[in-house]
Amino acid sequence: MANYTTTTPEWAVSNSSAVMSGIEGIKDTTVGNINPNWSKVKPKRRAALTEDEIVEGVIKGDRVILSQAITLIESNNPKHFAKAQRVLQRLLPRTGKALRVGITGVPGAGKSTFIESFGNMLCDEGHKLAVLAIDPTSSVTRGSILGDKTRMGTLSRRMEAFIRPSPAGGTLGGVARKSRETMLMCEAAGYDVILIETVGVGQSETTVRSMVDFFMLVVLTGAGDDLQGIKKGIMELADAIVINKADGDNLIRAKVTRGEYERMIEFIRPATEGWETHAYLASALKKTGLKELWQVIQIFKRLTTESGVFQKRRDGQLLDWMQAMIDEHLHNLFFGDNVIMGRMPEIREAVLSGIISPTQAVAELVKMFDVKRAAQRQVVDIFTAR
Ligand SMILES: Nc1nc2c(ncn2[C@@H]2O[C@H](COP(=O)(O)OP(=O)(O)O)[C@@H](O)[C@H]2O)c(=O)[nH]1
Ligand SMILES: [Mg+2]
Fold it and tell me: What domains can you pick out in the chain, each with its CATH number?
């Protein structure tokens, strides 16, 4: 029997009936620009901001308007999507000037504490910092940043910092698009350092790597067994390995761990052409090693800019992103098409019983597929919406 229900598109938030769910998602947190009485205030129906108002608000660095612009980007409503894209188009000339830094590491490594200390230091130095998260599990936990609100207490109250939790729900691809576009909005709003946090699970660290200039891996000390737990793949992505909690009784072990990582790095292809990845000691708690790490990032930026690698990576990221979106869009059209969905069980059966080969099956399915029909069928298709 054919299944004619419309599949939920990747950009649909789990509670898609809620208005401005992005803002609702961060109520009760210590995020500075959110009214703590939000839930007590009866939501009044206010006219939505116009495109001009959003563009001007973001350029002025108005945090409330920036939050609303991001909520539009995260919306599953095609009209919101179209509006957000028009806004983004106009803001595009103001993007790209921030330094984009990714942070990954196992839960408990100290990422949130690190961002709190590192972020405060950057703000003290006069930077404007946006902290974003990519968390594939966020539909359950509402984002790793939220789970750690107490660890970013002081940072979240600073006017120079803007903290946005991971968009909830959807595929990693959908979350990635939203996060990229959120990053661009933040850049247009004048944030000059973007920190993107992710828990190292599944593909999320690859996704973050694909949108940042500099990528660091935060690890724990005493890593004899831990070292094996860390996938070589993640180490290959890192421009720096930060051995956190290098304080107190742990300092000696941290130094040993650093040596172990340094030896491992020898056998690993560097993440960035012309750059040597190293392991550094830090303590997010005692705030040591942070200035040095920021210096390393500055040197990285200077060297890669001079060599052209910096721009080359960004260009590659843009094209890869476009490619990934094409893939995902066509994938959704194909597998969401009624005819394809209707015939699929039968064709699967035929393949399993050896009547046709997988190659023949694909040829048949593709012959049945009509992209125009599929695009019409997708009720909320952000790419075809006006
Ligand atoms: N001693 C010490 N503890 C730390 C340090 N950084 C984080 N922690 C502790 O490690 C635990 C996990 O930290 P958290 O930032 O939540 O880790 P995350 O899961 O990677 O975000 C918390 O109890 C922190 O207080 C550090 O530099 N030194
Ligand atoms: Mg955390």
Answer: 94-307 (3.40.50.300), 316-377 (1.10.287)
